[in-house]
Amino acid sequence: MATSTLMKKLSLATASAALMAMGVGTSAQAASLTNSTGLTNPTQTINFNEVSLGEGEQVTNQFSSLGVSFTNLYNITFYNGYFPNIAGNTLANFSNPYGGSIENPFSIKFNTNQTAAAFSMISNPGTSIFTALLNGAVVETFNAVTQYSGNFYGFTDILFDEILVNSAQGTNGAALIDNLQTVAATKSVPEPASTLGLLALGAMGAGSLKRKQQQKLTEKA
Q: Quick one: which of 8, 10, 70, 72 has the most CB atoms within 10 Å?
């Protein structure tokens, strides 16, 4: 049976309760996000069905055209429909539901800087650590109790290009993620006042150069 096999990686001690309730949460602290729906207005949502993947296939840069790559994650469809917000292709930190090693931590790397990102996640009950990084430096980190509720976890209102996840500390660390939502940072545009200031400086510089040229011509005459 699938359910008995499931216990080899993800214990089902409380899974039935999770299927009856979505588990609504609130932000743990500034810039962190924990809730049952994710971002309010994501510009992109990746459900990992956009690319054809084999069961247990390691996922690295297959989604690079969508602006994201991964480390220590594998495509798993075995748990389709067992948990809220987990369906079709999902990414797990193990390649075989029946056994094998669990890789922890795992990471989500973005091709461009992001101001917000979130994803649904289930794990064996434990405390997971979520860390946002920018060019390898820690920007923000928070801890959250993760289990079978399929809640969304992520960051908002900060600039980052990677999320590192240490899942389900105190257990075997098995975890699945799905429905990656993103908001890419937009390039800043100079304000009109700033643009006028630059034009004024340019005009002043041009005027000064013209006066110097006229002075040199006068001296030669």
A: 10
- Tokens for 205, please give them: 């510089």
Residues 6+ apart with CB under 8 A from 127: 143, 144, 145, 146, 168, 169, 170
Q: Which tens digits make up the pLDDT trace of 162-180? A: 999 999 988 899 999 999 9
Cα(115)–Cα(193) distance, integer angstroms: 26
The mean pLDDT of 18-27, rounded to a whole number, is: 39
d(CA 46, CA 67): 10
Report which of 126, 125, 178 is spatially closest to residue 152, judged by C-alpha positions. 178
Q: Alpha-carbon distance 90 to 108, whole Å?
A: 14
pTM for this entry: 0.76
